[in-house]
Each structure stands twice: as structure tokens, then as C-alpha cells.
Amino acid sequence: MIDLRHVSKTFRKQDELVDAVRDINLTIAHREIVAIIGPSGCGKSTLLNMIAGLYAPSGGSIIYKGASVSDINTDVGYMTQKDNLLPWRMVRDNVAFPLELAGVSKSDRAARADQVIKHVGLDGFAHRYPHELSGGMRKRACLARMLLYGAESALLDEPFAALDAQLKLAMHDLLLKLAAENGQTVVLVTHDLMEAVTLADRVVVCTRRPAMLALEQRIELKRPRDVLNIRFTNEFKELYDTLWERLRVEYHEERV
Amino acid sequence: MTAPDTETTSAVLRDDTAKSGSSALGSGFMVIYQVALGLVFLLLWQGASGRLVDSFFISNPIDVGTRLVGWIADGSLFVHMWATVYATVLGFVIGSIGGVVLGIWLGVSPFTSRLLNPYLNALNALPKVALAPLFVLWFGLGIESKVALAAVLVLFLVFLNTYAGVREVDQDLIDGARLMKATRAQVITKVIIPSAMSWVFAGLKISVPYALIGAVLGEMIAANRGLGYLVQFSGSQFDSAGVFAVLIVIALLAVALNFLVEIVQHRMQQWRVVGR
User: Fold this and answer.
1) I need a labelling partner for B234 at 20 to 30 A (CA). Which of A96, A128, B211, B244 fits?
2) Measured between beta carbons, which residues in chain B are less than 8 angstroms from residue A84?
């Protein structure tokens, strides 16, 4: 589905060349949920930007459904790390924005927007402006908008970082349900190992900048998963501990 | 060009004065002081005229007042005022529309804007007042040449602000919309233009006085009516009372225009939300 082949990305900062991503090979299957974790500022977001077609890779290629990504990739829904709601629109009009672009009638899109707004727990905030919401609420509005856009793949860049523990679980549950229902392929960038193991079929660990693949771990936990209780099962603990141990070694080696 | 930030700063300043002024005692006293200052100034002017300074140069308040009353009585003042207001408003409207359209068009066309860049810089640096003789040639002595001068002054200010606003649009918002299959036209109408609105309004606001300047200057250069014509005519007749009388009318007109802008801006702020 998504195929990264020897992808690298170099930015020019003033006169300096900065390696953000170096020689990444990764194949993501249809309907697979892949979590990418790694230290902050390591180039994970750059990776998502390239899959979305916002940046072209400096080397290698990104193949999406058999075709090389050369322009904006409108087959993906992309939830960026910084929320990109339109500040002059209320939550409902922001969430319904993709439907408006697609020419859906006003009453129809309001009804559909209100439904997803309820899903992400923002009911009662449909008529607020983004600056009136907390960071976590804005993230949820972005999530609602992405759900309404209904792309076949979803790129999520630290989507739940600003949420409290309870809400995070509710969002995890929602994400898994909808991904399963719609058969979406999901690429999730996160800091949170617990989140990665809970959600993903596969966890990929990146090194510090420039990002390279340090290790990969399949998460063979059966679905549908109970996001609340899965963390207390032995399989989960084993996977979490192995990953944690390998991460520790990885980061330790990095520092030496 | 003026950033919307300055708009908000001035709004904050205005709020402060409004707050300090709303303490009943302070505002009442301040108005009394202000009126007193004006009266003292008029008295000094009246006293100095003819004694300290030749009244040929500075006239005196009574003569100026008499002149004003005379013009009001025979209705000629309103003919001149109307000509100036008409040229100002029409020039402002034409210049604003032109500036906004040009600003958006060049803002979203990197190639064209780079192509035209040196020429636009040269035109902008040109003192627009120097175009007045050309406008008289093209449009004649009538109101059209005044409208053109006011419009050109407004156009460049509004254009520069609109252009800056369009260039300032957050690229993330544009990318976000394009990822959701927005067409180029949709990106422009639904992301770029709304986002640049606060810049456009800032440009419109600062250009209002320039519309008045353009109209009055145009009338001073060649006209047969308007406040600019009247001040020029009075001066050429060595009628200092007439000159002062017109200056007072122009100042009042400027104050009225600023007041109008404040009201419009207040209305705008009620239904428009800017910033995050």
C-alpha cells in the first residue's frame, strides 16, 4: 500500500545541509496500523509529510498504491502535529470543511459534522472558534475533520499527545473501531510506547536525527482490542518490556 | 504597509483611553479642559491679530467665523464640500477594489509578482501627487481627475497591505486544504482570502485619509469647485480668513471620516473573529 524505498531527506538551513531522514525502507500493507516512535525532532514528521506529498524526498522514492508520490497525495487523511484548523471558522464549519470542498449541501454536511463532533466528544463546542478551545480539543476537531474526509489511509502525527489519560483511551478506542470499519491503513507517529503497542500491528523505532530505522517489532495481539484492559494482559507486558529494553539499548548506544 | 498587529495595538490603546475616560470625573474634567484650551487659543488669536501680527497673515477668528457663516448662508460651502466628499468616497471605493484585486492576484501568482516586482516598486516610490497633471490631461478639469488621484493613492496602500496579507497566509492551512482535495480556486476563496482579511481591513483603514488628501490636492491643482479649489482660490485672493475657514472645514471632514471608519471597524469586529 505504502512503500518507502531508500527514502532520505536533506534540508538546506542557510548554508548548512541538515539530514532529516536517511535511507528508510518500509513497506506498509493495506489495512495495517504502523506506529513510528523515536526521539522528538528526529524526522518522523518529515516522513509523514513526504508520504502526504508535501515534500519530495531528496533520495529514493515513495510508492503509494503502485504509483510514485510526486504531488499532494489526496488519498491520505493527514492530521498534523500542529493543528491546522481555520481560525475564522467555528468548529462545525472546520470539521465540515472537506465536505464543503466536495460540494456537499449545507444541511447535509452540518448533520454529518455534528455526528463526528459527538464521536470525538466535542458536542456542545460546535459553535466555538478554535482559539476558544484547548489544545486537546483542537486536536480532536482535527481528528473529526479527518474522519469526515474519509480517506483510505490516515497519517497521524502525535494525535493524542495533549489529551488526558481517560480521553486518550476513548480516542484510541474510536480510532481502532473506525479504522477497522473503514478498512483504513494508519501510520501513527507517537512518543508514547504504551499507545504504540496498544494500537499498532507493527512498531517501528527511529534513531535520532537523521532518522533511520533502528528496529521493528510486530505486535501480534488479536483484534478487536480492548484498549482499556489490553495493557494488563501478559502478552502486552511482554511486548512492552521487550520493546522498552531494546529502546533503552538503542538510546543508550546512541548516547555513547 | 501596516500589519494587523498595529491595528490591535491601537485598539488596545483606544481601550485604555476609553477606560480612563469612563471614570466620570476624569472624562468630564478633560472635556472642560479641552474646551477651555480651544477658547483660550481663540482669544489669543483674536488678541494677537492686528496687534502682534498683521491680520493680513493670520486673519482673526471673528473674520473666519463670518466667512464660514456667509458661505453656509449662500450655500456655496455645501457645493464645495459635496464635490470633495464625492471625489474622496468614489476614489476610495475604486482604489480599494483595485488594490484588493491586484493584491490577491499578485499574491497568488508568484511568477507574475516577481516579473512585475521592480516596476511596482518604482511606481510605489513615485510620489503619486506628481501624477496629477497627467490625470488632468486625461480626465479633464472635472471631478474625474480628483477621483483618479484619490484612487491611485488608495490603490497602492490597499494593494501593498493585501499583498502582504496574502503572502502571510499560513502554508499549513493551504497544505491542509489541498490535502482535502481543494481546487486552486477553493484554496483562494476559502483559505487565502479569509486569512488575508485582517490585513485588507488594516489597509483600508489607513488609506481613508489618503483618499481625502488625493481629492483635495487634485482640486488645488486644477478645478472649479471643491474644498481644495476653495483654499487655493482664497489664497490667491490674499484672503487669509477664507483659507483658515476652509482648513477648518477640511479638518472637520477628516475627523468625521475617521469617526466613520471607527464605527465600521467596530461593526466588523462584532461579527468577525481574527486570530487564534
Assistant:
1) B211
2) 170, 172-173, 175-176
Whole-structure pTM value = 0.81
Q: Check A87 against B190: CB less than 8 A apart.
A: no
Domains and CATH numbers, chain A: 1-75+155-178+186-256 (3.40.50.300), 80-150 (no CATH)
How far apart are alpha carbons A128 and A135 in whole angstroms? Answer: 13
> Nearest 10 degrees: CA dihedral of B9, B10, B16, B19?
-130
Pick the CATH number of B57-271 from 1.10.3720.10, 3.90.550.10, 3.30.420.40, 1.10.1200.10: 1.10.3720.10
- Residues of chain A in contact with residue B180, where contact means CB-CB under 8 angstroms, are 74, 97-98, 101, 149
Q: With contact defined as beta carbons under 8 Å apart, do B220 and B228 qualify?
A: yes
Contacts of B190 in chain A (CB under 8 A): 86, 97, 100-101
Omega within 30 of 0 (cis) for the link into B127 = no
Q: What does the H/E/C string look like for B208-268?
A: HHHHHHHHHHHHHHCCCCCHHHHHHHHHHCCCHHHHHHHHHHHHHHHHHHHHHHHHHHHHH
Q: What is the pLDDT of residues A209-233, one digit of tens each?
A: 778 887 888 988 888 888 888 989 9
The alpha carbon dihedral of A151, A152, A157, A161 has a sign of positive
Would you list the domain boundaries of chain B?
57-271
What's the rounded Cα separation, in Å, for the pair B198 and B203? 9
Convert the pLDDT of each residue in B130-149 to its tens digit: 999 999 999 998 999 999 99
pLDDT of residue B11: 41
Length of chain B (residues): 276
Q: Is the pLDDT of residue B5 over 50?
A: no
> Hey, are the CB atoms on A86 and B191 less than 8 Å from each other?
yes
CB pair distance less than 8 Å for B175 and A72: yes
